[in-house]
Every structure is written in C-alpha cells, then in structure tokens.
Design goal:
30% of the residues are buried. The chain is an all-alpha fold. The protein is built from seven helices and no strands. It has one domain.
C-alpha cells in the first residue's frame, strides 16, 4: 500500500473515531445534568462513560491531525493544526476543525485541573465544549470526505439532534438534582 494512502486512511479513520468519541462524551455529559436518560441507567455508569470518552477522543484527534500533517496530499502544516483559518486551501473547513480542537483541548486541560480551578471559571470554560462540538460538526460536514456515507451522516446528524434535544431540556428544566425525580421530559 502506498504510504500516502495509508496516512490518508489513518487520518480519516482517526477523525471519525475522535468525532464519535466526542459525540458520546457530549451526550453523556449532558445526560448527567438532565433526567432524560435516568430510565436507562444510574448516573454512575453514565459518568464513567463520560470520563472515559473525554480521554479517548484526544488520542484519536491527535492521530487525525498528525496523519494529515504527514500526508503530502492533504497539505496541512503544523501551523494549520493550531492556528485557525491560515491553511492554504479550505480555510473555513480546516479552520473550524482547528478552532474546535483548540477549544476542546482547553476544556480537557481545565477539567484535569478542575480541583485547582475556580468553579465558576471551570464551568464557563467547560461550556465552551458546546461551541467546540458545533465547530467540529461543521468541520465534518465541510471537510469530512466520509460525511457523504449514509451511515456516518446519519449517526452524525442523530448525535447532533440528540445533543440539541438534551441542551433544550437542560435549558428549559435546568440541571437535575441528586435525589429528585425532576420533570417528566420524555414526552
């Protein structure tokens, strides 16, 4: 197999895996703060999945970026991976991905430092994950060569719809409280 083709396949697969883990991370994070999925599981398994996927998307995201940097066909430089909207082509699509990565790294690093960070500041930074996901979603639509595949597009749109629903539920009814049944929001 041609090494450049292998790098392209690695970058695509890692991008899809990172995006899938990010979708699960966002869905479980929101599910922890609403009563919507209480009928499926206790909060402890959802918390474990949220914590795990917060770790797993990052190495896939790094593999995605490194694969694209090493792939001569992609023409992505190291600067393009960290500085948004400077790529020589596809500035919007690549810039959205870069900005999403920058924001998500900030969210993850501050989460690692949560016990040493002011709670209000941590929450404000953690809420940037909503925007970072929206940017990653737009990046996948504009730059993702696999988004045309019905399975990938369907799962991506379903995840986005689930996130939108859980976000509206959380905004309308507020966060769940330990020990309270909360509003009936499934209907």
């Amino acid at each position: 197999m041609d090494p450049q083709l292998a790098l392209w396949i690695l970058a695509r697969a890692a991008g899809i895996a990172s995006y899938a883990a990010l979708c699960i991370d966002m869905l479980t994070g929101l599910a922890l703060r609403t009563t919507v999925l209480d009928f499926l599981a206790e909060k402890k398994p959802i918390r474990a999945l949220h914590d795990f996927t917060a770790w797993i998307w990052l190495p896939f995201g790094i593999a995605h970026v490194v694969g694209l940097i090493l792939d001569k066909t992609a023409r992505i430089s190291v600067a393009d991976a960290f500085v948004p909207f400077v790529a020589s082509y596809g500035q919007l699509a690549i810039g959205l991905g870069t900005l999403s990565l920058d924001l998500m790294v900030l969210v993850v690093v501050t989460s690692w430092l949560r016990k040493r960070t002011n709670v209000s500041l941590w929450r404000a930074i953690h809420r940037l994950s909503y925007g970072a996901f929206a940017l990653a979603f737009a990046h996948s639509i504009l730059a993702g060569t696999d988004f045309g595949a019905p399975v990938i597009a369907g799962l991506s749109w379903a995840s986005a719809a689930g996130l939108a629903y859980l976000t509206v539920v959380r905004m309308r009814f507020g966060p769940s409280r330990a020990g309270s049944s909360g509003p009936a929001v499934l209907g």
